[in-house]
Amino acid sequence: MKLIVKDIRKFSSQSDALNFGGMKIKILTLLIILFGVLEGKAQEKKWTLQECVEYALENNISIKQSALDLEFASIDRMDAIGNFLPSLNASASNFWSSGLVTDPITNTNSTQTFRSSNYSVNVGVTIFNGLRNIKTFQRARLSKLLSQYSLGKSKDDIALFVANSYLQVLLNKESLKVIEKQHEITLEQLKRTQDLVDAGVLPQGDLLEIEATSADELTRIVQAENSVQIALISLAQTLLIKDYESFDIIEQEYLVPGAEIMDKPIDQVIAQARESRYEVQIAEQNKLIAEKDLEIARGAYYPTLSGSFGYSTRESDAKSFSRVLDENNPILTQNIGTVEGTGQNVINQSPNFLLLEQNPNPFFDQLSNNDGISYGLSLSVPIFNGFSARNAVKRSKINVKRTEFQLEKAKLDLDSNVYQAYLDAKGSAEAYEAAQVSVKAQERAYEYAKDRYDVGLTNAFDFSQSKFRLENAQSKVVQNKFDYIFKLKVLELYFGIKIADIKL
Questions:
Q1: Which of 228, 244, 337, 405 is a plausible cystine mate for 346, CB 3.0–4.6 Å?
Q2: Average pLDDT in the 238-247 region?
Q3: How many angstroms separate the Cα of 488 from the Cα of each of 100, 210, 242, 427, 454?
Q4: How does strand 46-47 pair with strand 248-249?
Q5: Residues contacting 420, CB < 8 A, separation 6+
Q6: Sign of dihedral through CA atoms 52, 55, 61, 67?
C-alpha cells in the first residue's frame, strides 16, 4: 500500500507538471480510496473459538453421519407405526386370448379371439401377533433416543477436540512471543556488549557468546513459527477448511477462569456425570433396546391372527352364443329307422334351436354384474420351526447380558475418567502456580545476573544461562496456563456443562 501511494504521489507530481488540473487530483484521490478498500477486503478473517466450534458442528463429517443415523431412526419409527395400519393393495390385469378358449364370463368354450380384464382390491390387517407390533414401536422410540444421544456425544467430542486444537495454537503463539521477546533483549545486550568490548571492559569471548545465543534464539524462533503453522493447519483440517495459508485465529488474552468446580466434592461431580454424560446414557439405551428385542423374540411363541377383505370384478369383450327355438320350424323330425315285420318308419322329434351370436354387455355393466367380495380370518399357530424362535430368544438373552456388562463398564470408565480429570485439573493448577513462582524467582535472578554482567563481575556464558532459565520459566507458565484451562474445561464437561456454555 505504501508503494502504491508513493507511486501515486509521484504520478501526481508529474500530472501537476503537465498541468492536467484539479480533475486529475480527484481521480488520484478516488484511486487511493479504492486501494484502501481493496486492502481492507484483502485482510483475511480471523476466527474466534466460538466460531470454530460452531463451524465444526455444522460441517464435521462425523456429526453429519450421526445426524443421518437420527433420520434413519425416525424412518424406523414410521415403519413401526405403519405396522398398526391395515395394508391396502389394488391390482388390475388385461390380456388377450385366441383359439379354442373359455369365456371367463359365461364359462363356455368357443373358437374366437377376445380381450378380458380383472380388477381387485384387497385389505389385510394383523389383529394379534404376540404384541410384536407394540414392542417394535417401543423399540423404535428407544432407537431414536439412542441416535439423539449419539449425535450429542459426537458434538461434544468434536467441540472439545476443536477447543484443544485452538488452545494449542494459542500456546504455540504465546511461546513464540516469549522467544521473540527474549531475542529482543539479546539484541540489546549484544549492542551493549559490543560497546563494552570496544571499550576494553569485556573480553571478545563474551561478545561471541552473546552472538551464539542470538543465533540459537533465531533458530528457535523459526521452529516456534513452524509449530504455530502446523497447529493452525491441524485446526483448519479439523474444521475442513482447505485454505491453510490464510487461516488464522484471533489473538487475545485468555485469563485463567474461576475454578469453582474444584471446590465441589468428587462424589458430586461423578453423580452429576452419570446423569448427564452421553456415554452412560448410550449404554443405558442399548440395554433397554436389548430387553425390548428379547420381548419381540418371545412374541414368536404366540399365534398370529390376521383378517382380510377383498373385492373383485371382471369384464370381457368376447361374443356370446345362445340357443333360441326356431319359430318357423320349432320341431325337427328325423327318420331314424324302420320296424321289422311291419316296415313302419321310426321317427325322432326334437326342438329346433338356432345358435345366435350376441355382442358383449357394456363395460361398466359387466363390472357391476360380475363383482364379488371375500372376507375372512387367518390363524397361524407356531408348532415347530426348527428351533428358530427358541434360539432367537436365547440370543436376545445373551445380548441383554452383554449390554448389562457394557453399562457397568461405562459407569466404571466414567468414574475413572472423572477421577482422572479431577486429578489432572488439580495437578495442572498446582503446576501453574509453581510455574508462576518459578518465573518470578528467575526474573530476580536474571536482573541480578544482568547487573553483575554490566559491571563485568560475571561472564557472558553465566549471563546467557540465567537468561535461558528465565525463558524456560516463562514458557512453562504459558504451557501450564493453557494446559490448566483445557483440563478445567474437561472437568466442567463431566459435571454436565455443555460445550456451548463453556467460556474461556
A1: 337
A2: 88
A3: 92, 41, 31, 11, 44
A4: parallel
A5: none
A6: positive
> Residue 498 has what pLDDT?
65
* Separation of first and last alpha carbons in the chain: 36
Residue 111, strand partner residues: 100
pLDDT at 501 over 60: no
* Mean pLDDT, rounded, of the chain: 83
Other residues' Cβ atoms within 10 Å of the Cβ of residue 381 = 8
Residues 37 and 399: their CA atoms lie apart, in Å, by 66
Rounded Cα distance between 157 and 285, Å, is: 19
Strands annotated E in 86-108: 87-102
For residue 138, the 8-state DSSP code is: H
> Which pTM does this prediction carry?
0.73
Q: Cα(130)–Cα(139) distance, rounded to whole angstroms?
A: 15
Orientation angle between helical segments 22-42 and 2-17, nearest 10 degrees: 170
Q: Going by C-beta distance under 8 Å and a sequence separation of 6 or more, which residues neighbour residue 233?
A: 244, 247
Mean pLDDT of 282-304: 95
Q: What is the residue whose three cell numbers read 333360441?
A: 324
Q: Round to whole Å and give the CA distance between 299 and 135.
A: 9
**What are the φ/ψ torsions at residue 341 (nearest 5 degrees)?**
95, -45
Under 8 Å between Cβ of 127 and 306 = yes
Cell of 142: 428407544
Identify the DSSP state of 44: P
- Give yes or no for residue 25 having a pLDDT over 50: no
C-alpha grid cell, residue 334: 328325423
Contacts of 217 (CB under 8 A, 6+ apart): 179, 182, 183, 186
The mean pLDDT value for 445-465 works out to 83
Q: Helical H runs in 18-48?
A: 22-42
CB contact at 8 A, 312 and 120: yes
- Per residue in 249-271, pLDDT (tens digit) is 987 776 676 667 788 888 888 88
Q: How is residue 358 written as a grid cell?
A: 350376441
Question: What is the 3-state composition of the chain as percent helix, strand, coil, each rounded to the nearest 5?
Answer: 65, 20, 20
Closest CA to 366 of 423, 325, 313: 313
Length of the chain: 504
